[in-house]
Specification:
Layout: H1 12-24, H2 29-32, H3 47-51, H4 54-65, H5 67-76, H6 85-91, H7 103-114, H8 118-121, E1 122-132, E2 136-143, E3 148-154, H9 158-179, H10 187-201, H11 204-217, E4 224-225, E5 238-242, E6 246-248, H12 249-255, H13 262-280, E7 282-284, E8 292-295, E9 301-303, E10 309-311, H14 314-328, H15 332-343, H16 351-366, H17 375-388, H18 395-414, H19 421-435, H20 438-471, H21 482-517, H22 523-548
Parallel strand pairs: 4-9
Antiparallel strand pairs: 1-2, 2-3, 3-5, 6-8, 7-10, 8-9
Helix pairs in contact: 1-4, 4-5, 4-6, 9-10, 13-18, 13-19, 14-15, 14-19, 16-17, 21-22
Length: 550
Amino acid sequence: MIPFGRRHIRNFRRVREIIRVFRKYGFLYLFRRSQFPEQLTLPLFQKETTKRTPQENLRLAFEELGTTFIKLGQILSTRPDLLPEEYCQELRKLQDQTSPVSFLEIREVVEQELKKPIEEIFAEFDPAPLASASIAQVHRAVLKDGNKAAVKVQKPGVEEKVISDLEILFYLANLADRLTSFAPLTFSEMVTEFQKSLMREIDFLYEAVNARRFRENFSDFEGVYIPRVFDEYTTTRVLTLELIEGFNLSQMAEKGQLQIDGPFLARRGAEAVLKMIFEDGFFHADPHPGNIMIREETGELVFLDFGIVGTVDERTRENMERMLLAVLRKDTERVVDILEDEFLLSPVESPLTLRVDLHEILERYVTANLKEMNISSLVNDFFYLLRKHSLRFPPHLSSLMRALMVVEGTGMMLDPHFTVVPYLEKALERTFAQRLRWERLSEKVTDYLFDWQKLLANFPDKAQELLEEASRGRIRFQMESEDLKNLNRRLDRVSNRLSLSVILGSLLIGSSLIYISSPRPGAMGILGILGFGIAALLGIFLVIEMLRSR
């Protein structure tokens, strides 16, 4: 996906703009060793840049570059396993509020998606948007049956711009991977994860499915409400949800109008998110105050914006519960064992050093009362440890840990003395108790019996096949080791260079003998000169190969 090829010449101006903005905010070094033309990477000194922190400059650069980079920054802010906390905090300030597009353009999108004139679908449709972000804007409407709705409409040209920016990001990531390294992930892997998240955000059908699933999961949960989705008026670019009349937590906090039972709502919100994670295995990955409302009629908490969610399968939930309980009980050995066996995507180079560092972190919390323990500090220290040891943690579990941090921060806004840890411990103990119930145990025993039944039924045939193969001498044992593969590759390179060196030496000696033995310039002399030329080419090739492998 190289933007400078004929197929991608349309991306050239955007690439130049990206380089200009990063240069403006002091990130020119990212392109200094690149293959870009010199006029694109000329230094541009900005006095203001030196007065700001690097993380603030990064945020300003993302804001100036628009939709795709704002979303990139917002997603990176949820990944403390990749970036230090000071960068995550700064990127959370990214404002996704932009000027709305005209109602005529919105009308065109709605009618194109729903295949009808807007007057035939809605009894009312307010031309002035309730809110406007980089991807979409939301309008108040009333359906023909009288239901009030919030209609989220994707702005024209967003998908094309996002795809174009993703092409450029893939090119820049591949280039960055060749020039530098970023443990524990490559830049290309980061962009691949970002692409998956962003493409889901611009597909409103995906968000509608998430909203329906949350609504079903919380149908019997008192104090939490999920808006209804109007499926017949929802497509990939139009999402029609039940309009919620109420107060947004972030706006109320800014105005100092939190005249509510803060401790009760903080507790209810924490219980809701913990239910999502440990009971449903399907959770809101960004439950910050801007995505939570208080319903005016009932005082219920209302979760909004279901574009970024996380899923956890049952086995992973069990392992996560075991690890979190071990953390709360300061059991370092068990934490490291569970991490190594179940979660880390990269090997631990020094388990002893990791244990020592982890024990040092947990020691800080040994004397703390559960009601005083801050989950955000604990999680930040944990992710610092992962970065220090260049360890990879599954992205969906990073989102889970981040959700716990956010729900604690939101709770503290409602109740300054709030901490999520006591509710976390209760949730873990409750889920463990549920797993030990006879119904759950009997289900597992039944599954094990079926597995054993299949094994015993197939055992005689498999044993006979094995004995027959052994009697014919056809049994072979195969072992694979990544270290041995690397050693074989190195030996192959060494032997190839050695062979090339022998051939090179033979050519030089042979050509010298032929040239010296020739009494006068002729066919033999030319043959000797030709040998020198071939030897020179082989020598150059050998030197280049050696330099490339350094």
